[in-house]
Task: inverse folding
């Protein structure tokens, strides 16, 4: 009996440790490359100083640090708000709570991708500069509201005209939902990643900022060089050609099998 209980305790302990290790690993991946890393280093320094002051009997220093710890309990949720929001959004992407993106049949999806790729080719060739967002499962209505609502069918000519310099809508991002251009001239949050190359402009930083907060796909064309890039989950892939861009969009935008859709996907 004792051996069985001891064995069961060991198995539970191993599972417990693995779960904690997995959560810590995911937390590190979320804050990697953000200002939160420096904040955690600062907290680590405060903890070490607090332990040392207690060990050396520095009562005044220990008292001040104890007060700081009380303040940090309230301040930490505010300081780490972007990281906490990102973690909760990723948790909400689970299949149980996922809201499937607008479902397109294969023909409509191929048409959408072809039109986007054709527009990007023209924009890149003429160094016009562009930022096109393709919404997926996580809604981005907050950013749609910052722009001019359109609700027009996606076409290469339409997209190119939007990004012609000095046109009313050329500043900001175009957001596509399904096969419709929902809004243009949208403002997006800039990435807070301190490790980004200084040569990246506002379009690239805005694309990364949005994809850090959602599962949207961002297609960027540099106005200076005509280089085509794709941003996803806070990562940037640059120097793409037309064929590679099409492959990426095909892979990312393929709809899931209906049997795998969300528990809360109430569709007629």
Result:
């Amino acid at each position: 009996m004792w051996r069985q209980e001891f064995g069961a305790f060991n198995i539970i302990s191993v599972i417990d440790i693995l779960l904690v290790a997995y959560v810590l690993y995911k937390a590190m991946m979320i804050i990697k490359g953000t200002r939160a890393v420096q904040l955690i280093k600062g907290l680590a320094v405060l903890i070490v100083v607090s332990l040392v002051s207690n060990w050396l009997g520095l009562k005044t220093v220990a008292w001040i640090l104890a007060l700081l710890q009380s303040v940090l309990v309230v301040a930490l949720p505010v300081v780490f708000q972007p990281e906490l929001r990102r973690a909760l959004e990723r948790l909400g992407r689970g299949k149980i709570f996922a809201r499937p993106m607008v479902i397109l049949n294969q023909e409509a999806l191929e048409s959408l991708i072809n039109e986007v790729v054709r527009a990007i080719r023209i924009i890149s060739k003429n160094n016009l500069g562009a930022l096109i967002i393709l919404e997926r499962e996580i809604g981005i209505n907050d950013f749609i509201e910052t722009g001019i609502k359109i609700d027009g069918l996606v076409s290469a000519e339409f997209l190119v005209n939007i990004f012609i310099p000095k046109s009313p809508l050329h500043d900001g991002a175009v957001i596509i939902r399904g096969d419709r251009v929902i809004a243009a001239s949208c403002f997006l949050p800039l990435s807070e990643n301190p490790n980004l190359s200084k040569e990246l402009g506002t379009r690239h930083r805005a694309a990364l900022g949005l994809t850090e907060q959602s599962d949207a796909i961002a297609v960027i064309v540099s106005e200076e060089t005509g280089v085509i890039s794709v941003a996803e989950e806070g990562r940037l892939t640059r120097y793409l050609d037309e064929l590679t861009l099409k492959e990426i969009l095909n892979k990312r935008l393929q709809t899931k099998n209906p049997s795998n859709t969300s528990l809360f996907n109430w569709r007629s």
Confidence is low (pLDDT under 50) at residues 256-268. The CA atoms of residues 13 and 78 lie 33 Å apart.
